């Protein structure tokens, strides 16, 4: 399908329609993930961080890979790291919606702490790549290999942290327990649920390809800044499932799932860079992008550090029931958008 001959109104309509489909799929995915967490006994934080995080990030993955295959390094890179910043800001919105107390206080879980620390490490690896010589093995920068190794090593370690925690949150009157709503079932009884989940993931992947093609055409036709398009257009639209699933999880009372889905999705999003580096055939993608793209990576790093501090401090409530971290997250993200707009 070619998008270069389509009129502007139709391009925008396709972009909006794809975003709408992603939104609907995101709503369905939350309920499926919550039931999978209950039936398998893996827990909301782990399922939210790994399974739901990967599923809701799938459309964004396809956007980055498609853009990299088309030689659009900046769009591919900024889509990935811009989504991390946007999704972390969504968590602050969820904190505002949850009126009882600060969300980071009530949903304290060692898995979420581990995920935040892992994400800080993963976001640091591209910065190391940027400051080192442009070298590749089989056309791929060593940092891309490191991202995969650290990510999957972190996933295995997180499972161990969940099953044998060496740290426990202090329980207060507002602390929320992750208690299953459904009894555990064997794998055969869960196959239809997993199949439906996989089907929704396939739809998300297809919509990601559509968004990438439309965004690329808009960038070329109107000579737009690819970094801005990636960070504030495709990244935000493909992050809509994270916003929807987070708010839906808060509404369902699955608070660990809400935080785990955001941080886990952000952790998975760092693999966008590896996949983009593989798809980009003109050298290291870490050296083919501009400082504007790394600006959004550092914003994501700062926001993750703030979130980690909030999970550790566990402020019970602040103005309007939200903590200092939510106010800071929205301030940092809003400030970043303003700087990009005037820059």
Automatic annotation (TrEMBL):
Stretches that traverse the bilayer: 6-25, 46-69, 75-98, 110-129, 135-157, 192-212, 224-243, 255-274, 294-313, 322-342
Domain Sodium/calcium exchanger membrane region: start-end pairs: 11-128, 193-340
Any one of the GO CC terms: plasma membrane
Membrane topology of this protein: Multi-pass membrane protein
Keyword Cell wall biogenesis/degradation: no
Molecular function GO terms recorded: calcium channel activity; calcium, potassium:sodium antiporter activity
Keyword Ribonucleoprotein carried by entry: no
Pfam families named in the record: Na_Ca_ex (PF01699)
Alphabetical keyword list: Membrane, Transmembrane, Transmembrane helix
GO terms under biological process: intracellular calcium ion homeostasis
Source domain of life: Bacteria
InterPro entries named in the record: K/Na/Ca-exchanger, NaCa_Exmemb, NCX_ion-bd_dom_sf
Localization (cell): Membrane
Name of the protein in question: Cation antiporter (Na+/Ca2+)
Source organism: Roseibium aggregatum (strain ATCC 25650 / DSM 13394 / JCM 20685 / NBRC 16684 / NCIMB 2208 / IAM 12614 / B1) (Stappia aggregata)
């Amino acid at each position: 399908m070619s998008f270069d001959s389509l009129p502007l109104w139709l391009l925008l309509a396709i972009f909006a329609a794809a975003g709408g489909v992603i939104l609907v799929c995101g709503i369905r995915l939350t309920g499926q993930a919550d039931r999978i967490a209950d039936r398998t006994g893996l827990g909301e934080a782990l399922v939210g961080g790994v399974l739901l995080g990967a599923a809701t990030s799938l459309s964004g993955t396809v956007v980055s890979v498609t853009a990299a295959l088309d030689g659009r390094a900046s769009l591919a890179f900024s889509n990935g790291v811009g989504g991390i910043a946007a999704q972390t800001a969504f968590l602050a919105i969820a904190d505002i919606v949850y009126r009882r107390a600060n969300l980071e206080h009530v949903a304290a879980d060692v898995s979420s702490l581990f995920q935040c620390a892992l994400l800080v490490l993963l976001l640091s690896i591209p910065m190391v790549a940027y400051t080192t010589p442009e070298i590749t093995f089989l056309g791929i920068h060593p940092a891309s290999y490191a991202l995969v190794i650290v990510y999957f090593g972190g996933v295995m370690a997180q499972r161990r942290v969940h099953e044998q925690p060496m740290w426990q949150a202090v329980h207060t009157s507002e602390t929320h327990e992750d208690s299953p709503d459904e009894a555990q079932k064997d794998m055969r009884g869960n196959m239809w649920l997993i199949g439906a989940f996989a089907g929704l993931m396939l739809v998300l992947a297809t919509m990601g390809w559509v968004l990438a093609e439309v965004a690329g055409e808009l960038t070329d036709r109107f000579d737009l800044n690819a970094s801005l398009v990636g960070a504030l257009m495709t990244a935000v639209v493909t992050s809509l499932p994270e916003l929807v699933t987070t708010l839906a999880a808060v509404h369902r009372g699955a608070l660990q799932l809400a935080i785990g889905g955001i941080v886990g999705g952000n952790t998975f999003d760092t693999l966008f860079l590896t996949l983009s580096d593989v798809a980009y055939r003109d050298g290291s993608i870490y050296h083919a992008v501009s400082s504007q793209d790394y600006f959004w990576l550092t914003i994501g790093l700062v926001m993750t550090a703030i979130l980690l501090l909030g999970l550790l401090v566990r402020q019970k409530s602040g103005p309007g029931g939200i903590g200092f971290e939510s106010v800071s997250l929205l301030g940092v993200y809003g400030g970043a958008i303003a700087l990009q707009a005037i820059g």
